[in-house]
Amino acid sequence: MLLLSCSQLSRAFDAEPLFQDLGFELYSGQRVGLVGPNGVGKTTLLRILAGLDQPDTGAVRRHAGARAALLRQQPVFEPGRSLFEEARSALEDLLRAHDDMIQTAEALAHASDPADKKSLADRYERLNEMLRYHDAYNVDHRVEHVLDGLGFRPTEYDRPMETFSGGQQSRLMLAKLLLSAPDVFLLDEPSNHLDIAATRWLEDYLVQQPEAMLIVSHDRYFLDKVVTKVFELNAGGIQSYPGNYQAYWRLRRERFEQQLKTWQAQRAYIEKQEEYIRRVHYGQLHKQAQSRRKALDRLERVEKPAWVESPHMHFGEVRRTGDVVLHVENLAKAYDRPLFRELNFSLRRGQRLGILGPNGSGKTTLLRLLMGDEQPDAGTIERGHLVRFGYYDQHLQALPGDKTVLRAIWPEGDADATEQAMRDLLGRFGLVGDQVYQTVNQLSGGERSRAALARLVALGVNVLVLDEPTNHLDLWACDALEQALLDFDGSALVVSHDRYFLNRVVDVLVVLEDDGSARVIFGNYDTYERMRTLQSLPLPSPTKGAEKGAEPAREAPGPAGKAKRKRRFPYRKVDEIEAEIAAEETHLHELERLMASSDLYRDGDKVKETMQAFEDAKVSLEQLYEHWEEAVELNG
Question: Which CATH architecture has domain 324-531?
Answer without folding.
Answer: 3-Layer(aba) Sandwich (3.40)
